[in-house]
Amino acid sequence: MLNRSLAPERHHIQNMSLIEPETLVFDNGLKVFVFRAEDQELVKAEFVFQNHFVSPENPLLHTCLSHMVKEGTHTRTSAQIAEEIDFYGSYLMPEYSFDHTAVSLYTLTKHLGAVLPVLYDVLTDAIFPEMELETYVRNNRQTLQISLQKNDYLARRLFYKHLFGTTRYGVTPTIEAYDQLNREDLIALYKRQFQAANATLILSGNITAEVLLCIRELFEGQWLNSSDELTFVRPEFPSFTPALVLENKPEALQSAIRLGMPTINRTHADYPAVQFVNTLFGGYFGSRLMRNIREDKGYTYSIGSASASLKYSGLFTIATEVGVETTQATLTEIEREFTNLRNEGASDQEIDLVKNYMMGSMLGSLESIFSHADKFKSIYFSGLGYDYYNHYSETIQQMTASRVQDIAWRYFDYDKLTKIIVGTL
């Protein structure tokens, strides 16, 4: 009988088993990756388009396109699209990120044939009705006006502007930018970007021969490309100079603090080690920043750091909100943690804890075929192969106190951070 008074034995996680996709390329250039799970009754069809920009870059146009792409076609109104998808218990979800726009369809396998034409219609024949665009602009102007009253939102805007300037990663919405949105620009971007040669289709779930045939009939046989070939240009980022930016708000009760700088992305060999040190420093609930500034000092409810990978860059950031009377004390403690990270070795217990947390999180994120597809997307759109995950796992397992200090001296320098404070210093 199981003795529940004894804790279960701990085992180190050694290897991960990742499912790799079957690869197809349709005649029209559409790249297709298939993750099969025959025991599922679900299918997810995710079309991912690389965002295309012209100068000057206007990411607001891309977010508007993502929100409005299912708001009507020449043959279906927004309500009809929603009703047809809902009737079959399916789900159609557009998504936007800095580098890609995606449209995902979730449906039971048996209903795929009924809802796939709706998805095809959305991807090839969207019309962006003027009335829906006016509603989108009005609602988002109001949301922006409210957000501009929030210190954390202002700090985030200033942060991205100082790191990435007027590029796609640095531009944030303004009231004037919403007023300049128009249907002609949206349709031009839609026709330029939503074409087979610029798309990647990731199919996951119960992908039978009938499902593939259904996909091919619509998205290979009927989906034509534009005659204009797309070219993608790396954005020209401004040279980064650390700065202290204070937006003083004497009436504020809390200060929003955001620190950070551009850094390496997933394509760099040191990236997994940087992620490890970031996790130890501020990347999970038991991190040093949380233990010091939340648990010990009580300055904030939450504080965290992150290392993010973008297509053309990466960034490191720390974010928190504190009472205005502890703004300077919080910055002092953050600086102290940077100093400790570089000058004092981490204990074996702390390193083991972070190793188990990161490897456990990785395994925990592989609970379904859909999450295996997500892992594939992370490497595919970074131009990497599955060797990345072997490198990731080996790096995490081999981290030591001296390796943590080495990474800290190279990538974690308090003096090289831009420091944004909205509130009172």
Automatic annotation (TrEMBL):
<dbReference type="InterPro" id="IPR050361">
    <property type="entry name" value="MPP/UQCRC_Complex"/>
</dbReference>
<feature type="domain" description="Peptidase M16 N-terminal">
    <location>
        <begin position="65"/>
        <end position="144"/>
    </location>
</feature>
<feature type="domain" description="Peptidase M16 C-terminal">
    <location>
        <begin position="181"/>
        <end position="356"/>
    </location>
</feature>
<dbReference type="InterPro" id="IPR011249">
    <property type="entry name" value="Metalloenz_LuxS/M16"/>
</dbReference>
<dbReference type="Pfam" id="PF00675">
    <property type="entry name" value="Peptidase_M16"/>
</dbReference>
<protein>
    <submittedName>
        <fullName>Pitrilysin family protein</fullName>
    </submittedName>
</protein>
<dbReference type="InterPro" id="IPR007863">
    <property type="entry name" value="Peptidase_M16_C"/>
</dbReference>
<dbReference type="Pfam" id="PF05193">
    <property type="entry name" value="Peptidase_M16_C"/>
</dbReference>
<dbReference type="InterPro" id="IPR011765">
    <property type="entry name" value="Pept_M16_N"/>
</dbReference>
